[in-house]
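User: Structure please.
Assistant: Input sequence and predicted structure:
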Amino acid sequence: MTADKVKKEILDVLPEKIAVWVLRIVAPFGGDVKINEIRIRAGRPLAVVIDGKEHIAGYVVGPGEPTEIFVRLCKNSPYAFSEDIKNGFITLPGGHRVGIAGKVLQSGSIREISGLNIRISGEIKGCGEKVMAHVAGRDGRIYNTLVISPPCGGKTTLIRDIARLLSDGWEGVNGSFEGVNVGIVDERSEIAAMQGGMPRHDVGRRTDVYDGCSKQKGIFMMLRAMSPKVIVTDEIGGEGDFAALESAMNSGVKIIATAHGCSVEDIKARRVIANMIREGFFEKYIILSGTRGPGTVERLC
């Protein structure tokens, strides 16, 4: 994401003194700099992660500033984000995720905020082309595919572009693929980044989106109402995901999904996903890592 877009969607909402320091760090890199994260921790220097490398500002965040900034990001209404806060983050317009650290109450709410991690959502058109021969065959068949990566490994960016390519179609070395109806169940508002009924990211012309909807509910709704050929969703593994994905597959709908992990063996430690693998839900796996930057394809299997 360019510095100009980050300024418009993130920095214009932050206190001026924080925004100024971020811009000081970013300025030497030019307008096409890739900003990954902005780290705001009480009592410690402001930090900006650019192309996977941390850069420290000469500004120490005050003890009350993370709370002040959080309230500003919530447009002075944290209560409206109460359910998201219980999951440890909120999602801003544009699909940017703000992680929250602090005192966790029994209710799951967070008080005395000590740190914020603003993760910048980036759209990289074309990044999915390198894996499309793995996702879809020459005969047009689409494979149920699970993308596995550690946090910040680029999995959401990748499935966003896979959704666009499946929706619009593409020409590749393995032949052409005609676009199909794609349904995105975007529980955290990060894949399509919907705003005012419009996706902020390009997810394809044949794509329908359920935004801010649980995977279980959204998948069943998509099957009943929108006739997708493929459903794309992020970070599976919760209770109820098994039944929802099983229903989609039994209906002949293909699934493109993601999960946190470093390998297929790694995610088998999670009961719900282990059951999916044992039942043969997925035909293909894409393993990502950050060894050469976010979105590095480590292995296809």
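The chain is about 30% helix and 30% strand.
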